[in-house]
PadR family transcriptional regulator (Geodermatophilus maliterrae), 197 residues
Amino acid sequence: MLEFAILGLLQQAPMHGYELRKQLAEVLGGLRSISYGSLYPALKRLHAAGLVTTDEPDRRAPLPADAPPLTGRRGKVVYTITAEGKERFAELVSQAGPEAYDDGRLFGVHLAFFRHTAADVRLRILEGRRRTVEQQREGLRSSLARTRERLDRYTLELQRHGLDSVDREVRWLSELIDSERRDPGPGQPAEPQRDAD
């Protein structure tokens, strides 16, 4: 998931680690906070795989005259996506199977980079995510029906809250799917509306 998000951000512009971490927090929102302890090993793996290159500053170069006192000699390493990295990113955004929607965090990364994704793939991912969440909802409903009498009121409220959250996600996904069918984006034909039987 992290490598997918990094490649997606580097697709837009080269960045150093601090910028990447900041952009990841913005793109992923509340999905996950990214620590430097997970970011830099991921960058190292991407570099070793040839998916990104690094541009390291010359440590022997003199510091600028306006550098603040006690400025360290270590400059920022800038990461740039390679042609192989762009190919890998294209593979990742085109995946529409369960790996794209079963895990909520990976689904969130896919959603964050939907502008790079073909309309038919976006629709398959959204529909797959909705099916997954609907199955979770049915499991929660079934569990609540079986255990309602044995639960104290606080645990019961917690389960109801979980069910409400899942219901909201199903409605949200349905709205996204309807919107995608109406307007799939430039150059993409709209899918014909299906009658509900």
About this structure: Residues 57 and 149 are 66 Å apart (CA to CA). DSSP finds eight helices and three strands in the chain.
